[in-house]
Write a structure and sequence with these properties.
Elements: H1 4-9, H2 16-27, E1 40-45, E2 52-59, E3 65-73, H3 76-89, H4 94-110, H5 116-136, E4 144-147
Parallel strand pairs: 1-4
Antiparallel strand pairs: 1-2, 2-3
Helix pairs in contact: 2-3, 3-5, 4-5
């Protein structure tokens, strides 16, 4: 288990409670499954390294995210990050989760770094949001696929 001091030694300012929560998501990822019952599905894909996140949402009649699940193909960072992300959005109104996700996505896109693993999670949610909106308009769409735009060539990436 990584301790609070280990995080701090690498420049991360976390409390012991936060370190425990991070370890929990790493060793026991939450929501790591495809939902059998869902009304939105989005796929975020990295065309450079074939990483992919499939996100499933169950939005209730009040417009809140009742349940969320994901499957992935790629580095372990995806599972760890998606576990935290899905726990953060569960129970939120869909629009609030969308606004939060869009702001995070915009922030990542403004930087010139390798955040493809995190970006795939955000893009998968944004695709699921679009899929939900399309279904509400009566479109018969199984899922929405969004490809991420990468800034580095695969051979230069430090993740993924």
């Amino acid at each position: 288990m990584v301790e609070e001091a280990d995080f701090k030694a690498h420049g991360y300012d976390v409390t012991s409670e936060q370190a425990k929560a991070l370890n929990d998501h790493y060793h026991d990822p939450k929501n790591r499954w495809a939902l059998k019952e869902y009304n939105a599905r989005g796929i975020g894909r990295n065309p450079d390294n074939y990483g992919q996140v499939d996100m499933y949402l169950l939005v209730n009649d009040n417009g809140e995210i009742e349940n969320v699940g994901y499957e992935f193909n790629g580095c372990p960072t995806i599972s760890f990050s998606a576990s935290i992300f899905t726990e953060d959005i569960k129970g939120l109104p869909l629009k609030e989760a969308f606004d939060m996700t869009q702001a995070s996505f915009d922030e990542i896109m403004a930087k010139d770094n390798c955040e493809e693993c995190t970006t795939m999670i955000l893009v998968a949610f944004l695709a699921a949001y679009e899929n939900y909106q399309n279904r509400q308009k009566g479109m018969d769409e199984e899922f929405t696929l969004k490809m991420i735009e990468t800034t580095l060539q695969f051979s230069q990436q430090t993740c993924g």
